[in-house]
Design brief:
Elements lengths: L12 H19 L2 E2 H14 L3 H15 L3 H10 L5 E2 L11
Antiparallel strand pairs: 1-2
């Protein structure tokens, strides 16, 4: 990992850690997969910290630019899945960090 995670200086240390947990979960979906429930738990906490859709989209774009991982694609797949499903996205063709 040669990139940084997006965050706001307005957040508490705990909130920064929880947002990083969400982006780490996105990485995990690409790298080895994750249970839908586990992903949705960290996403719900992320949404408590970032309730604004525009701010969410900004953070997604910043993270994708840095990492090549699409948070949007991960959450789209998770929302289409059922509890108990294993979520995994093939990382083929990713443009990693700049």
């Amino acid at each position: 990992m040669g990139y940084s995670y997006p965050f706001s200086y307005d957040w508490s240390t705990k909130e920064i850690i929880d947002v990083i947990k969400f982006f780490t979960a996105v990485e995990t979906v690409y790298e080895r997969g994750m249970r839908r429930e586990e992903l949705m738990d960290v996403y719900r906490r992320f949404k408590e910290i970032v309730p604004s859709k525009s701010e969410e989209n900004r953070l997604y774009a910043e993270f994708e630019k840095e990492s090549g991982y699409s948070s949007y694609a991960v959450m789209k797949r998770a929302k289409e899945a059922k509890n108990g499903d294993w979520i995994r996205i093939e990382p083929s063709g990713l443009k990693r960090g700049r």
